Amino acid sequence: LWEVVSDGLDFIKVGNVEMPSRAYVSAFGFKGPDQQKPAGVLSGGERNRLNLALTLKQGGNLLLLDEPTNDLDVETLSSLENALLEFSGCAVVISHDRWFLDRIATHILAYEGESKWFWFEGNFESYEENKIARLGIDAARPHRATYRKLTR
Questions:
Q1: Region 62-73 average pLDDT
Q2: Domain boundaries defined on the chain
Q3: Which CATH class is domain 2-104?
């Protein structure tokens, strides 16, 4: 798997930074003999970490992540959080994982129902406190979506 990420090179360019390829692979939880595993024998969590390493190696400035914590093991979740915290670009994350959002979010664009969107600078916990202060305690409770019949 090290060769898949590094193309067999001792140093790789990650974004605009050159770094030792084995250290980069190690940052995603592949240490020692794990770096020599063939990509085809990786577990689901290991494949997720490999894909994350390959994606972040490309060095873009925007990541679009839709429910990125679904089906991740603890080690892969930790790698994802750390990679996002070190990512110098913008990550747009759609997630129901409040703990994950609380750890990585710096800005929140929240749909608050009835076609209303709210922009907030801060993490998820701060957003929730702000929402209660603005809309009352009832706003923090989950509500079932309501639908209107379409009329012609």
A1: 89
A2: 2-104
A3: alpha beta
